[in-house]
Structures are given as structure tokens and as C-alpha cells.
Amino acid sequence: MKFTSVEEAYSVAPSLYRQRQWLETVERTLAGKRLFLVEGRTAGDREYWVDLRDGASLP
Q1: 35, 57 Cβ separation under 8 angstroms
Q2: What pLDDT shows up at residue 12?
């Protein structure tokens, strides 16, 4: 039953389905993690990385 609904959702909008799956995966991965958001205009040309290892701490 679940496979049928997944197949149907994908067939209706493949790119939207993939984006939603990616976002849900990110949501599960980041649950309970300490996050820092950087607004794009203040970030400039710098790149920011998120350390997703368990127990990661700030320097």
C-alpha cells in the first residue's frame, strides 16, 4: 500500500517528491542538533559547513 502511494506521488511531481524527501531527511538528521543559521547576504562569499557528528561541539 505504501509503495503504491509513493509511486503515485513521484509520478505526479518527480522533482517535488525528491525535494520533499531530501528535506524530510535533513529534518530527521538535524533533529536535536545545535544549529546556527547564517542569512545569505551577511554570509558573503564564505562557505559554512554543519558538523553533524554526534557530540560535536564549538571550538
Answers
A1: no
A2: 92
R_g of the chain, CA atoms, integer Å: 17
- Residue position matching grid coordinates 557528528: 53
Q: Residue 41 corresponds to which cell in the numbers above?
A: 547576504
**Distance, CA of 7 to CA of 22 (rounded, Å):** 16
Phi, then psi, of 48 in degrees rounded to 5: -120, 140
Q: Who has greater pLDDT, 29 or 46?
A: 29
C-alpha distances (whole Å) from 33 to each of 1, 12, 24 are 33, 34, 15
Residue with cell 517535488: 16
C-alpha cell at 13: 511531481
Please state the pTM of the whole predicted model: 0.54
